[in-house]
Amino acid sequence: MELIDYIDGLFIDLPSIPYYCITARLNTAFKGHASIWYTEMREIHGRRNWPWWKHQIIQKYSNGTWIWQKTMSFENYKYSVEKDPYEWCLRPSERLKAIDPQMNIQMGNHKLLTQMAG
To answer: Could you report the per-residue pLDDT of 36-95, keeping only the tens digit for each?
Structure first.
């Protein structure tokens, strides 16, 4: 959860920064479904401090079900010649980072290559 570590670091390095300067801009850090999730949560719960948002992010995106879904998405996503190689590689590599942020580049490349049929 690089985002959480980064934001925690901001509050350590800049203790006088108001929490809303960061939390109000979280939607720029999220993409796709995560952005929709953040927008809905903010509409429902209003302005909240960083510890509250941190808890919500961890609860939503660091549980076993979410990791399992990302793993299944990665394993079921196969390369085909009709797809752009750059796009094909980018999406699965982002899923790998979400599944295992500590994975080294060589292992990630090996896992990507195993997804190629043939």
So the answer is: 999 999 999 999 999 999 899 888 887 777 778 878 888 887 777 777 777 777 778 878
* SS3 track for 43-105: HHHCCCCHHHHHHHHHHHHCCHHHHHHHHHHHHHCCECCCCCHHHHHHHHHHHHHHHCCCCCH
Distance CA 82, CA 69 (A): 25
In our burial notation (b when 16+ CB lie closer than 10 A, e otherwise), range 4-42 reads eeebeeeeeeeeeeebeebbeebeeebeeebeebbeebb
Per the listing, tokens 């979410």 go with 66
* pLDDT single digits (tens) 6-32: 888 888 888 888 888 888 888 888 888
